[in-house]
Amino acid sequence: MYKKIILFIPHSSDNINNSKWDNDELFQQELNTWTDWHTNTIFSANIPNVKSIVVPFSRYFSDCERLINDPLESTGNGIYYTHGHNGVNRIISDIEKNNALNVYNEYNNLLINESKGNSLVIDCHSFPSILNNDIDVCIGFNNDETKPSQYVLGLIYHTFKQFGYNVQFNLPYSNAKCGAVGSHSVMIELNKKIYMNENTLKLDVSAYKITNALIDLYRNLL
Questions:
Q1: Whole-number Å distance between alpha carbons of 81 and 92
Q2: Local structure of 197: helix, strand or coil
Q3: Per residue in 135-173, pLDDT tens?
Q4: Are 66 and 108 in contact (CB under 8 A)?
Q5: What b/e sequence results for 70-91 when a residue is b if at least 16 CB atoms lie within 10 Å of its CB, and e otherwise?
Q6: Range(s) of the domain holding residue 15
Q7: CATH of the domain at 8
Q8: How far apart are the first and last CA of the chain?
Q9: Residue 149: what pLDDT?
Q10: How many CB atoms lie within 10 A of CB 150?
Q11: Which residues are CB-contacts of 105 (< 8 A; sequence separation ≥ 6)?
């Protein structure tokens, strides 16, 4: 198994670092829906050899999940967003673009440095229930050398199943953030309905269940 687990948590913050959008009300709706609320709390665990890397900025300032020259740049959703899902648009200067890129480089370099050796990167996310109300947990992976073994993927799948969750591979999202060369990567996406109130944005008592499932998973993977 693995000597180290790196929890990469890129979308839990709502800190937009004074980014300017053309409609405050629409943007707040966008931010509320697509921020991965509480994932920094849900995924993190005080377990030896489990390290969290939490990006302290919103994806609406700098999306550290993206790639350099990401295909999503064509829709305004690359490292720095210029468009939202609901039609809101960002007014961005060259200085802001450079600042966003600097944040991106800082946290991607940190991920690479921390994941050297026999490590598993867990790409930690959540998704709104309006996207898919049936799936509780999505497990994503890349079809390349970063893909964990079938045994590891099965272990992750069955850990969540034992806690009663409906689990799917690469649905509604696929792939996973990569770390250092030689490390493995897997994405875990949690349906927000299993741990929070999507109207108030507050944690629900059900959060304890998914937290316990994740702690079991980390211990099994180490």
A1: 9
A2: strand
A3: 999 999 999 999 999 999 999 999 999 999 999 999 999
A4: no
A5: eeebeeebbbbbeebeeebbbe
A6: 4-221
A7: 3.40.630.40
A8: 6
A9: 98
A10: 8
A11: none
